[in-house]
Design a protein that fits this description.
12% of the residues are buried. By secondary structure, the protein is mostly helical. The chain has 2 domains: 12-69; 80-143, no CATH class. The protein has helices spanning 12-31, 47-69, 80-99, 101-113, 122-143. The protein is 64% helix and 0% strand. Helix 3 packs antiparallel against helix 4 (101-113). The longest helix has 23 residues, at 47-69. It contains 5 helices and no strands.
Length: 153
């Protein structure tokens, strides 16, 4: 004779996210332990890190509590292809910023990064790459004056 079935609770991915947020917040508090807190009127070097870490822990707690109220969802197995594609896109962007200029590096980042999703559309990807590259050049290079060449020549 078995008892009534109990529905499992706990959204696994959100619980993992909550744990990571709380863990990184606690690590930040520990790393900032020797920094001067200061006051709101005269902030020390440790004021902002502690404030951000406190918000990170609070956000993790809110996500964790809401995840515990939802039905159980398993964490999917990690897929290696998207992880590798994104990491290689970022590494290529860092290299190309120095040697190929912002425009080539930005186009590389967006187009190569889009390969992480095998269902992406090329027309949409190319339009997004052009628009984001133009926006990035206007904001970062011209607007904020980031010292980076637009082109390699």
């Amino acid at each position: 004779m078995t008892g009534p079935s109990v529905a499992r609770k706990g959204d696994g991915p959100d619980l993992l996210t909550a744990g990571l947020f709380i863990g990184f917040g606690a690590l930040g508090f520990w790393l900032a332990r020797d920094l001067d807190q200061g006051t709101l009127a005269q902030m020390g070097a440790g004021y902002l890190p502690r404030a951000v870490c406190g918000l990170l822990i609070l956000l993790g707690a809110v996500i964790g509590v809401t995840a515990l109220r939802r039905e159980a969802v398993a964490i999917e197995a990690m897929r290696l292809r998207p992880l590798l594609v994104i990491v290689l896109s970022i590494v290529g962007f860092a290299y190309l910023c120095e040697h190929g200029g912002f425009i080539i590096a930005s186009l590389w980042l967006i187009i190569a990064g889009s390969l992480a999703d095998p269902g992406g559309r090329w027309r949409t990807t190319l339009m997004l790459a052009g628009g984001l590259t133009a926006f990035g050049a206007l904001v970062f290079v011209y607007g904020l004056g980031v010292q980076i060449e637009l082109w390699p020549f």
